[in-house]
Each structure stands twice: as structure tokens, then as C-alpha cells.
Amino acid sequence: MFKILTYNNISAAGLEKLPRERYEVASELSHPDAILLRSFDLHGVPIPETVKAVGRAGAGVNNIPVADYSKRGIPVFNAPGANANAVAELTIAGMLLAARSICSGWDFARSLAGDDDALHNQVEKGKKRFAGFELAGKSLGVLGLGAIGVKVANAATALGLHVAGFDPSMTVESAWRLSSSAVRAGSIDDLVTNADLVSLHIPLNDQTRGIIDGSRIDRMKRGATLLNFSRAGVVDEPAVCAALESGKLHAYVCDFPTRAILGQPRAIVLPHLGASTAEAEDNCASMVAEQVRDFLENGDIRRSVNFPEVVLPRNNGVRLGIANENVPNMVGQISAALGEANLNILDLLNKSRGDYAYTLIDLNSEVLPETLERIRSIKGVLSARII
Fold it and tell me: Cα separation of 195 and 137, whole Å?
């Protein structure tokens, strides 16, 4: 029986993917085979020796020390695209909130006092302060055309916006889904220069941290709106605050409260609601539970953030899964160890990704403990298990 340690409440739709006769799932248990979590911060949490996989029921993995797990040969799985509809809908809502000054107008209306005649007079005098603009006919720049960015672009097109996008790593699948009326920007600078609204849908990493900085904000139209439903760190917050104060930006809509942004009257700040729908939570939990189960039971890796995609149809023999550093002659050394044990390879699939590689091998007979230890002792092998 496999043991699954949970650090957050995982949707029942996901847990149903783990049959009770084969899986013990609990928030407190020893010697877990895998970890499932949502927003819990794993940084600084010791890695149990028995852990073979980590599943994040969401897209971002900033709360997981991926490098530490990689060094132990442990795949980290996530659920890209499972919350795409929820985040895209909230992004469109953010555009409407900013365009029509809905938040400040709502605050004004709730502060009114007096009878209906007094309310009417106050409304007529005050409503000019909340005059907005229509989205139809405006230009939207979408930075990042993954599952979320494409949905935002398509929805915006349907609302009558002129959409341009930029994503140097755009997949063929995303390209097929993108509306044919969307145009390709030549660079990030081109994207922000020509847009009335700019929407960010990119991961936070070393390359994207602070990617919307002061120089790029300076390139934007005066009165442009910036929407950030990626991560707080992809923008330079002091530059955003300065642009809001000067009127360079009409509004900044984000899903990540920070003290600096909360102090800005032109900012619309939401409490990280992007994936907070029942549907998104169900989708994310189901996707990642299926990935973790497939890895534990078959050794297959699908949608891992740190190891390559490796899927091998099972033969009738014994399966061996090996994670290792991506260095020369690893497969040769592993094959030699199997040959020394008089084991015949029925099928083998090896793939690499960056500094790491993963190998699935189907063998004709049982692997003795001493052979498994021999493979684990090869320099560069991070983990090896019989599946």
C-alpha cells in the first residue's frame, strides 16, 4: 500500500483518484511515498527518505524547493492548465473593474447617507469621478501564451479588444487554440509600447523576476492598465507604485497583496483568488493525483517540472525506474550492472532534461537487492526503485 502525506485540504475529486485499497492518505503519517499539497511552504521541511514524488495541486511551484528534490531524484509534479479557466475569467473581471472604476465607485456608493433624494443628488454630483472607458476597440498585450494567456486573449477578442501576444516558448498546442485575429508582438518592448492594457501570464523564475521594470513601464502608454495574475515578483513594485502615483498607469490589478501595493489608491488588489473556484480545485487535484499515481504504480513521468516526460508501455517483466544526473555513460553503466546479474532488457526508455535524466527499464526477471544496490552505488544515480 502506498502512503500519501497531504499538507493542505486536497479536493475530494483528486483523492478519489487514489483507491483506498491501494492508498493510505492522511495529513499525518510516517514514511510517506508521496506528498500532495497546494500552497503549503515546503522550504525548510525535511525530505523523508521514503518520498518518491511530490504533487502540487496547482501550477506554480514556488512553495517547493524543487532543486533539493531534484538532487534526491524526486519528480515534482504540477497541474498546468487545470486552473486556466478560473484565472482567465478573473483576469477579464480585472479588466472590467479597472476600466469602469468599479471598486472606487462601489466604495463611494456604500458611503452615501441620507434619504433617496439625498442619495440621488450625491450620486449625480459624484459619479463623474468614476467615469471609465470601454474595452471594445482598445489594445491588449498578453505576455505569456500558455493555457491561461490563450484563454485571456480569446475572451478579450470576443469582447472586441485588439489582441497582441508575446511568448518565445509558445507551444504548437497553444498556437492552435489561439484566435486567428491575435497578432504576434516582436518583443516584450513592442508588446507594452502599443497596448492600452497589458496582462501578465508567465511563471516566476530567474529570467522573469522584475521583467516589467521601470524602463518597460516608461514605454507604456500614459493611462495604460497593467494586470498581473502571474506572481508578485514578475513586476518591479517600486516602479509600479511610482507609475500609479504619477498617473502613468491608470490602474494596477493584481492577485498578490503586498504592503506597498495596498497603499496605492489606483491599485485593485485581490487576495490570491485566481484558482479559487471549486472547479479549478477539482481539476488541479485530479490531474496531479493521476500523475503521482501513474508514477508510483508505473514509473511514468508526465508533467513534471524537474524531470523529463517518460512514458513507457508496460511489458510483462519487472520494471526498474532510475533517476540520475545527466552525464555520459549512465545508461552504459546501468546496463552493465544488469548484464552482470544476467538480466535481459525487454524495453528501455531514457530521456534527459537539463541536469537530470530518467530511465525506465523492463526486465525479464526479478531484480535482486544486491543488483539494485549496485545500481544505486553508481556515481550520479540519484534514486533507483523496482516498480
Answer: 11
pLDDT tens profile 28-82: 999 999 999 998 999 999 999 999 999 999 988 989 999 999 999 999 999 988 9
In DSSP terms, 342 is beta-bridged to: none
Contact yes or no for 222/250 (Cβ under 8 A): no
* 316 and 295 housed in the same domain: no
Contacts of 22 (CB under 8 A, 6+ apart): 1, 2
Amino acid at 337: A
Q: Where are the beta strands (DSSP E) in the chain?
A: 2-6, 23-26, 34-37, 53-56, 76-77, 139-143, 162-166, 183-184, 197-200, 224-228, 249-254, 267-269, 318-325, 345-353, 356-363, 381-386
Q: What is the CATH number of the domain that holds 384?
A: 3.30.70.260
**Cα maximum dimension of the chain:** 94
Cβ–Cβ contacts within 10 Å for residue 1, how many?
Answer: 8
Residue 304 is placed in which grid cell?
A: 513534471
